[in-house]
Amino acid sequence: MPQPSYVHGASATPLIGETIGVRFDRIAERFAERDALIVRHQQVRWTYRELQRRVDAFAAGLLALGLEPGERVGIWSPNNAEWVVAQLATAKAGLILVNINPAYRLAELEYALNKSGCSALITAARFKTSDYVGMLNQLAPELADATPGKLEAARLPRLRLAINIGGDSVPGMLRFEDVYDLGGDVERERIANLADTL
């Protein structure tokens, strides 16, 4: 079980001694009906209550997919609402979010995923001239025939799960939207227990 880290430099102001998930829940409870996230290019305007609902559902979905606290989840995407959900959900589930530069190309992606030991990757379909799904398929051609969540790729040996941001279904990948519906009471209880132990 990962242990919380607390480092405090020279300052009279102490750090907040709560995890990101616990702090987010406190803020969401206090400001439930206020705007929490506005993403104009996606026409998203969520209150703290709505964002919290999505974060909790996505965190439970990640655990239902077999990810365990302490595992690494990469995110390879430009700024969007899903990025924020993933950041908060991984924190609540005790997962480590690995931010992968949206400008990375094939060799850089391979290095980043393998060096960090990512078990899962959340990726946009594309950004500018980068076809993220195409590059991932080049690195892991096994993805095309894989059952989502059970990837076994020679060049990416630790990666077993790929999640696609966007509406399109991609062979071997789960849709980001579908992860919301995977978790149940068991996973939500695990998340609550994690908050108490971290």
Describe this structure as you would to a colleague.
- This protein is of the alpha/beta class.
- It has one domain (20-197): Rossmann fold.
- It has seven helices and nine strands.
- The protein has helices spanning 20-30, 48-64, 81-92, 106-116, 132-139, 176-179, 185-197, and strands at 35-39, 44-47, 72-76, 96-100, 118-124, 126-127, 130-131, 161-165, 174-175.
- It has a five-stranded parallel β-sheet, with helices on both faces. Strands 1-2 form a two-stranded antiparallel sheet.
- Helix 1 runs antiparallel to helix 2 (48-64) and helix 2 packs across helix 7 (185-197).
- The longest helix is centred in the first third of the chain and has 17 residues, at 48-64.
- It is globular.
- The protein starts with 19 loop residues before the first helix and ends with a helix.
What attributes does this structure have?
198 residues, alpha/beta, Rossmann fold, five-stranded parallel β-sheet, two-stranded antiparallel sheet, 7 helices, 9 strands, globular
Backbone shape: globular
The residue ranges in which pLDDT falls below 50 over 5 or more consecutive positions are none
Number of domains: 1
Q: Structural class per helix/strand content?
A: alpha/beta
